[in-house]
Amino acid sequence: MGLQPDPELLYLSAMFHDTGLLLPFSDTQQRFELDGADHAREFLRDRGFSRSAAEAVWTAIALHTTPGLPDRMGPETAATHYGVLTDAVGWGLDRLAGDPGG
After folding, report:
1. Kindly report the CA angle at 9 between 37 and 53, in degrees rounded to 5?
2. For 48, which DSSP code?
3. What pTM value is reported for the model?
4. Alpha carbon 67 to chain centroid distance?
């Protein structure tokens, strides 16, 4: 697909993308995607990541379930969205290299 996300930021986006579904990170006042994004941003900033890196991860997580937007955003956002689609509904499995059946 021609995406070239930062591997570390993509990994962090994938690791934190559903954090908002879990206690104590869940806030019933906002969508779980935002809860996870807020937690990930705080985690990254507390560990010295740049503001731009933290915002890239925040955006990827906040939009990972939003149709029509992630593929128009940065590579981490698009790749996180596509990864979630592949995991959740099998989108694009036929285009992955290797034999997924073993």
Report:
1. 70
2. T
3. 0.83
4. 13
